[in-house]
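Batch job 17 of 40 flagged for manual review because the log was empty.
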Amino acid sequence: MKSFVFLPFVLLLTIVQAQNPVALEKDPVGGIWSYSGKASLLFNQAAFSQWASGGVNNVSLGFDVDYEVHYKENGWSWDTKSSGSYGLSYIEGDKFLKKTNDRLEINSLLGKEFSDTWSYSTILNFKSQIARGYSFGKNEEGEEIRTVRTHLFSPAYLQFGVGLYCKKSSKLWVNIAPFTQRITFVSRKFTQDLADDKAYFGVSKGSNHLFELGASVSGFYKFEAVENVFIENRLALYSDYLGEPENIDFDYSLTATMKVNAYISTQLEIQLVYDDNAVQDLQSREIFGVGVNFDL
Protein backbone atom coordinates (compact mmCIF):
# COMPACT_ATOMS: atom_id res chain seq x y z
CA MET A 1 0.00 0.00 0.00
CA LYS A 2 2.91 2.39 0.53
CA SER A 3 3.41 2.52 -3.23
CA PHE A 4 0.07 4.33 -3.55
CA VAL A 5 1.67 7.38 -1.92
CA PHE A 6 3.62 7.94 -5.15
CA LEU A 7 0.63 7.55 -7.48
CA PRO A 8 -0.41 11.24 -7.45
CA PHE A 9 3.08 12.22 -8.57
CA VAL A 10 2.97 9.65 -11.38
CA LEU A 11 -0.34 11.12 -12.53
CA LEU A 12 1.07 14.63 -12.57
CA LEU A 13 4.08 13.54 -14.61
CA THR A 14 1.92 11.79 -17.22
CA ILE A 15 -0.63 14.52 -17.95
CA VAL A 16 -1.77 14.54 -21.55
CA GLN A 17 -0.93 17.85 -23.24
CA ALA A 18 -4.15 19.91 -23.49
CA GLN A 19 -5.51 20.78 -26.89
CA ASN A 20 -7.47 23.97 -27.50
CA PRO A 21 -11.14 23.13 -28.19
CA VAL A 22 -12.62 24.18 -31.52
CA ALA A 23 -14.72 27.23 -30.67
CA LEU A 24 -16.57 27.93 -33.93
CA GLU A 25 -16.52 26.37 -37.36
CA LYS A 26 -18.55 27.55 -40.35
CA ASP A 27 -20.69 24.97 -42.11
CA PRO A 28 -20.77 25.10 -45.95
CA VAL A 29 -24.54 25.86 -45.81
CA GLY A 30 -24.06 28.75 -43.40
CA GLY A 31 -24.57 27.13 -40.00
CA ILE A 32 -22.16 27.34 -37.12
CA TRP A 33 -20.73 24.30 -35.32
CA SER A 34 -19.01 24.42 -31.95
CA TYR A 35 -17.23 21.67 -30.06
CA SER A 36 -15.83 21.33 -26.57
CA GLY A 37 -14.81 18.56 -24.23
CA LYS A 38 -12.92 17.77 -21.08
CA ALA A 39 -11.61 14.75 -19.26
CA SER A 40 -10.34 14.29 -15.73
CA LEU A 41 -8.74 11.71 -13.48
CA LEU A 42 -9.88 11.77 -9.85
CA PHE A 43 -7.71 10.28 -7.12
CA ASN A 44 -8.35 9.48 -3.45
CA GLN A 45 -5.96 7.67 -1.12
CA ALA A 46 -5.47 6.95 2.59
CA ALA A 47 -2.56 5.04 4.13
CA PHE A 48 -1.88 4.06 7.76
CA SER A 49 1.09 2.53 9.51
CA GLN A 50 0.94 1.68 13.22
CA TRP A 51 -1.78 4.32 13.57
CA ALA A 52 -3.01 4.18 17.16
CA SER A 53 -6.64 5.09 16.47
CA GLY A 54 -6.88 2.59 13.61
CA GLY A 55 -7.58 2.88 9.91
CA VAL A 56 -7.75 0.86 6.72
CA ASN A 57 -5.53 1.54 3.72
CA ASN A 58 -7.57 2.38 0.65
CA VAL A 59 -7.23 3.96 -2.75
CA SER A 60 -9.67 4.91 -5.49
CA LEU A 61 -9.26 6.18 -9.03
CA GLY A 62 -11.93 7.52 -11.34
CA PHE A 63 -12.15 8.80 -14.90
CA ASP A 64 -14.70 11.31 -16.24
CA VAL A 65 -15.15 12.51 -19.81
CA ASP A 66 -17.64 14.99 -21.32
CA TYR A 67 -17.96 16.08 -24.92
CA GLU A 68 -20.41 18.55 -26.46
CA VAL A 69 -21.40 19.34 -30.05
CA HIS A 70 -23.61 22.33 -30.92
CA TYR A 71 -25.08 23.53 -34.20
CA LYS A 72 -27.09 26.69 -34.91
CA GLU A 73 -28.66 28.04 -38.11
CA ASN A 74 -31.73 30.19 -38.93
CA GLY A 75 -33.41 29.68 -35.57
CA TRP A 76 -32.65 25.95 -35.49
CA SER A 77 -30.32 24.55 -32.84
CA TRP A 78 -29.00 21.09 -32.13
CA ASP A 79 -27.21 20.46 -28.83
CA THR A 80 -25.68 17.07 -28.02
CA LYS A 81 -23.70 16.12 -24.95
CA SER A 82 -22.08 12.75 -24.24
CA SER A 83 -20.65 11.88 -20.85
CA GLY A 84 -19.13 8.87 -19.16
CA SER A 85 -17.71 8.14 -15.73
CA TYR A 86 -16.04 5.09 -14.26
CA GLY A 87 -14.23 4.57 -10.98
CA LEU A 88 -12.86 1.76 -8.83
CA SER A 89 -11.70 1.57 -5.24
CA TYR A 90 -9.49 -0.87 -3.38
CA ILE A 91 -9.81 -1.40 0.37
CA GLU A 92 -7.08 -3.46 1.98
CA GLY A 93 -8.41 -6.83 3.00
CA ASP A 94 -11.25 -6.94 0.48
CA LYS A 95 -11.25 -9.70 -2.11
CA PHE A 96 -12.79 -7.63 -4.88
CA LEU A 97 -12.45 -4.14 -6.26
CA LYS A 98 -15.57 -2.01 -5.76
CA LYS A 99 -17.07 0.48 -8.19
CA THR A 100 -17.31 4.08 -7.05
CA ASN A 101 -18.88 5.37 -10.26
CA ASP A 102 -20.29 3.96 -13.49
CA ARG A 103 -22.32 6.09 -15.89
CA LEU A 104 -22.84 6.38 -19.64
CA GLU A 105 -25.24 9.08 -20.88
CA ILE A 106 -26.12 10.88 -24.12
CA ASN A 107 -28.44 13.89 -24.32
CA SER A 108 -29.48 15.37 -27.66
CA LEU A 109 -31.92 18.24 -28.16
CA LEU A 110 -33.26 19.69 -31.42
CA GLY A 111 -34.98 23.07 -31.13
CA LYS A 112 -36.70 25.64 -33.35
CA GLU A 113 -36.92 29.15 -31.89
CA PHE A 114 -40.20 31.05 -31.74
CA SER A 115 -38.95 33.79 -29.38
CA ASP A 116 -35.66 35.04 -27.97
CA THR A 117 -35.52 32.36 -25.29
CA TRP A 118 -38.22 29.75 -26.15
CA SER A 119 -38.10 26.98 -28.74
CA TYR A 120 -40.15 23.99 -29.80
CA SER A 121 -38.06 20.98 -28.85
CA THR A 122 -37.47 17.31 -29.44
CA ILE A 123 -35.24 15.65 -26.87
CA LEU A 124 -33.50 12.27 -26.81
CA ASN A 125 -31.83 10.80 -23.73
CA PHE A 126 -29.95 7.51 -23.35
CA LYS A 127 -28.54 6.20 -20.06
CA SER A 128 -26.76 3.00 -19.12
CA GLN A 129 -23.54 1.84 -17.48
CA ILE A 130 -20.13 0.68 -18.66
CA ALA A 131 -19.31 -2.43 -16.64
CA ARG A 132 -20.96 -5.11 -14.54
CA GLY A 133 -22.45 -4.20 -11.18
CA TYR A 134 -22.36 -6.62 -8.26
CA SER A 135 -24.06 -7.16 -4.93
CA PHE A 136 -21.63 -8.37 -2.27
CA GLY A 137 -22.04 -10.78 0.61
CA LYS A 138 -20.39 -13.69 2.41
CA ASN A 139 -20.74 -17.44 2.04
CA GLU A 140 -21.06 -19.99 4.85
CA GLU A 141 -17.29 -20.01 5.30
CA GLY A 142 -17.25 -16.24 5.80
CA GLU A 143 -15.54 -15.56 2.47
CA GLU A 144 -16.58 -12.55 0.44
CA ILE A 145 -18.66 -13.39 -2.64
CA ARG A 146 -20.32 -11.31 -5.33
CA THR A 147 -23.34 -11.74 -7.56
CA VAL A 148 -23.91 -9.99 -10.90
CA ARG A 149 -26.83 -7.58 -10.60
CA THR A 150 -26.42 -5.32 -13.66
CA HIS A 151 -24.23 -4.95 -16.74
CA LEU A 152 -23.86 -2.89 -19.92
CA PHE A 153 -27.34 -2.13 -21.39
CA SER A 154 -29.05 -3.95 -18.53
CA PRO A 155 -30.65 -1.74 -17.54
CA ALA A 156 -30.57 0.88 -20.30
CA TYR A 157 -33.01 3.77 -20.58
CA LEU A 158 -34.09 5.39 -23.84
CA GLN A 159 -36.25 8.49 -23.53
CA PHE A 160 -37.80 10.51 -26.37
CA GLY A 161 -40.07 13.52 -25.96
CA VAL A 162 -41.47 16.67 -27.55
CA GLY A 163 -42.23 19.96 -25.86
CA LEU A 164 -40.81 23.39 -25.13
CA TYR A 165 -37.24 24.50 -24.47
CA CYS A 166 -36.24 27.65 -22.59
CA LYS A 167 -32.57 28.61 -22.94
CA LYS A 168 -31.28 31.75 -21.26
CA SER A 169 -27.70 30.78 -22.08
CA SER A 170 -25.49 27.71 -22.31
CA LYS A 171 -25.31 27.87 -18.51
CA LEU A 172 -29.08 27.96 -17.83
CA TRP A 173 -31.83 26.04 -19.61
CA VAL A 174 -35.03 24.12 -18.93
CA ASN A 175 -36.88 21.63 -21.16
CA ILE A 176 -40.53 20.67 -20.59
CA ALA A 177 -41.81 17.65 -22.54
CA PRO A 178 -45.44 16.74 -21.70
CA PHE A 179 -45.34 13.81 -24.14
CA THR A 180 -42.34 11.62 -23.41
CA GLN A 181 -41.91 7.91 -23.97
CA ARG A 182 -39.38 5.97 -21.95
CA ILE A 183 -38.26 2.41 -22.61
CA THR A 184 -36.27 0.40 -20.08
CA PHE A 185 -34.22 -2.40 -21.63
CA VAL A 186 -32.81 -5.36 -19.68
CA SER A 187 -31.36 -8.77 -20.43
CA ARG A 188 -33.82 -11.67 -20.19
CA LYS A 189 -31.30 -13.61 -18.13
CA PHE A 190 -32.22 -11.31 -15.22
CA THR A 191 -35.99 -11.77 -15.67
CA GLN A 192 -36.42 -15.40 -16.74
CA ASP A 193 -36.26 -16.78 -13.17
CA LEU A 194 -38.27 -14.03 -11.47
CA ALA A 195 -41.33 -14.83 -9.41
CA ASP A 196 -44.61 -13.81 -11.04
CA ASP A 197 -45.09 -10.93 -8.60
CA LYS A 198 -41.53 -9.60 -8.92
CA ALA A 199 -39.89 -7.25 -11.42
CA TYR A 200 -36.35 -6.31 -12.42
CA PHE A 201 -36.10 -2.52 -12.82
CA GLY A 202 -39.84 -2.57 -13.54
CA VAL A 203 -39.55 -5.30 -16.22
CA SER A 204 -41.77 -8.32 -15.57
CA LYS A 205 -40.86 -12.00 -15.71
CA GLY A 206 -39.59 -13.24 -19.08
CA SER A 207 -39.66 -9.79 -20.73
CA ASN A 208 -36.76 -7.63 -21.83
CA HIS A 209 -38.30 -4.14 -21.81
CA LEU A 210 -40.79 -1.83 -20.13
CA PHE A 211 -42.66 0.86 -22.08
CA GLU A 212 -43.78 4.04 -20.33
CA LEU A 213 -45.53 7.17 -21.58
CA GLY A 214 -45.48 10.30 -19.48
CA ALA A 215 -44.10 13.78 -18.95
CA SER A 216 -40.54 14.91 -18.30
CA VAL A 217 -38.83 18.06 -17.09
CA SER A 218 -35.06 18.56 -17.26
CA GLY A 219 -32.84 21.50 -16.44
CA PHE A 220 -29.26 22.70 -16.09
CA TYR A 221 -27.72 25.61 -14.20
CA LYS A 222 -24.02 26.46 -13.89
CA PHE A 223 -22.52 29.41 -12.04
CA GLU A 224 -19.30 30.58 -10.40
CA ALA A 225 -19.95 30.62 -6.63
CA VAL A 226 -16.67 32.34 -5.79
CA GLU A 227 -13.54 32.87 -7.85
CA ASN A 228 -12.46 29.59 -9.52
CA VAL A 229 -15.24 27.58 -7.83
CA PHE A 230 -17.89 26.41 -10.30
CA ILE A 231 -21.19 24.75 -9.41
CA GLU A 232 -23.19 22.65 -11.89
CA ASN A 233 -26.76 21.55 -11.14
CA ARG A 234 -28.67 19.00 -13.23
CA LEU A 235 -32.24 17.86 -12.61
CA ALA A 236 -34.43 15.36 -14.46
CA LEU A 237 -38.04 14.53 -13.50
CA TYR A 238 -40.36 11.92 -15.03
CA SER A 239 -43.97 10.91 -14.38
CA ASP A 240 -45.54 7.88 -16.07
CA TYR A 241 -49.15 8.39 -17.22
CA LEU A 242 -49.64 4.64 -17.76
CA GLY A 243 -48.40 3.57 -14.33
CA GLU A 244 -48.52 5.60 -11.14
CA PRO A 245 -48.16 9.25 -12.22
CA GLU A 246 -47.96 10.42 -8.60
CA ASN A 247 -44.66 8.51 -8.25
CA ILE A 248 -42.28 11.01 -9.81
CA ASP A 249 -38.82 9.71 -10.66
CA PHE A 250 -36.03 12.22 -10.25
CA ASP A 251 -32.31 12.39 -10.83
CA TYR A 252 -30.45 15.35 -9.33
CA SER A 253 -26.70 15.87 -9.43
CA LEU A 254 -24.50 18.65 -8.11
CA THR A 255 -20.88 19.01 -9.18
CA ALA A 256 -18.60 21.53 -7.49
CA THR A 257 -15.19 22.10 -9.06
CA MET A 258 -12.43 24.26 -7.63
CA LYS A 259 -9.66 25.06 -10.10
CA VAL A 260 -6.12 25.11 -8.76
CA ASN A 261 -4.61 25.78 -12.19
CA ALA A 262 -5.25 24.81 -15.81
CA TYR A 263 -4.62 21.13 -15.07
CA ILE A 264 -5.35 20.48 -11.39
CA SER A 265 -8.68 20.79 -9.60
CA THR A 266 -10.63 19.34 -6.71
CA GLN A 267 -14.11 18.05 -7.41
CA LEU A 268 -17.13 17.15 -5.31
CA GLU A 269 -20.01 15.26 -6.91
CA ILE A 270 -23.31 14.50 -5.20
CA GLN A 271 -26.14 12.58 -6.87
CA LEU A 272 -29.63 11.81 -5.56
CA VAL A 273 -31.91 9.41 -7.45
CA TYR A 274 -35.40 8.09 -6.86
CA ASP A 275 -36.82 5.45 -9.20
CA ASP A 276 -39.25 3.01 -7.61
CA ASN A 277 -38.71 0.57 -10.49
CA ALA A 278 -35.08 0.20 -9.38
CA VAL A 279 -35.09 0.75 -5.59
CA GLN A 280 -38.09 1.93 -3.63
CA ASP A 281 -35.98 4.32 -1.61
CA LEU A 282 -33.75 7.35 -2.12
CA GLN A 283 -30.40 6.49 -3.71
CA SER A 284 -27.42 8.72 -2.99
CA ARG A 285 -23.81 8.90 -4.12
CA GLU A 286 -20.97 11.25 -3.17
CA ILE A 287 -17.42 11.44 -4.55
CA PHE A 288 -14.66 13.86 -3.62
CA GLY A 289 -11.16 13.87 -5.01
CA VAL A 290 -8.23 15.64 -6.60
CA GLY A 291 -8.48 15.81 -10.38
CA VAL A 292 -6.05 16.01 -13.26
CA ASN A 293 -7.86 17.75 -16.14
CA PHE A 294 -7.25 18.17 -19.86
CA ASP A 295 -9.25 19.52 -22.78
CA LEU A 296 -10.31 17.39 -25.74
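Reviewer: the log was empty due to a logging misconfiguration, but the result itself is present. Confidence is low (pLDDT under 50) at residues 1-23. Unflagging and moving on to job 18.
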